[in-house]
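<derive_structure_tokens>
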Amino acid sequence: MQRLSTARDHASTWRGLERRARDLSELLAMAIAEGDESIEPAAAADLAAIENELQAREFELQLSGPYDQRSAILAVHAGAGGTESQDWAEMLFRMYLRWAERRGYSTEVLDVTEGEEAGIKSATIEIAGPYAYGYLQSERGVHRLVRQSPFDSSHARHTSFAKVEVLPEVESMGEVTVNPDDVKIDVFRSSGAGGQNVQKNSTAVRLTHIPTGIVVTCQNERSQGRNRGSAMKVLESRLLEIELNRREEEKARLKGQHVDMAFGSQIRNYVLHPYKMVKDLRTGCETSDTTAVLDGAIDGFIEAYLKSRVGEEA
């Protein structure tokens, strides 16, 4: 039903564009025939709006993968470096929440593990909206931050790393099969800031998928049942990602290509000192407006990445 609704929306959008272009063409033809130049400003504005909408829709055509239209599950993990990397992971966490808000996507924080002093060790977010996975797959990899440390009294320059994972959301029950006997379930008390926020009941859930060794923890909800449902959703998406990687590796083997499926490669540098620059190492796309980027303005990097993939073999 979701795919059907998306297809209807696409058809409605393209038909609407066609109708607007036709109406504008007819209006211009009438104005030319009558020698009426008064509608020129309004017609130019309408034409620009149609062209902008057309470019946006044509760009979406690049997202033609079998899972690109789906919602996404995004996870941020702090790298080695303690408080520095944990603070960087929280900055990225906020960046993606702000990006989703800018695009009108809904978000749900499935799990957050706080750092000891500041920041987060890891966080998992569900970002729901059309093409969320298609857009966000460009963010998968290691993100590097260079800045003057706010946690260092000497204000020395520090380099921090954080890893971003992006998974397609599983839409149907039969898409990924999880044998209940293969899943070990542990419950424990949610960690918190202490005081009145400490959970008195064991509501946090940890799922361990025995065949693959995947471990998923969810403790953001106060209900054990909801945490378990969120953890199972993430586990299914991780298993789907493993299957997708297996298919890509097999495809590359048959083509005689070498494809590194690891997500450990550094994809983007965020330099806040001694100068300001964010640069994507895959596409060369860069900007000096680091404040806007960290506030969610990453569409330029996403579009540059997707355009760079046009023409790649399927």
Summary: The first strand starts at residue 72 and ends at 78. The longest helix spans residues 2-34. The CA atoms of residues 279 and 312 lie 23 Å apart. Residues 194-199, 258-264 have pLDDT under 50 and may be disordered.
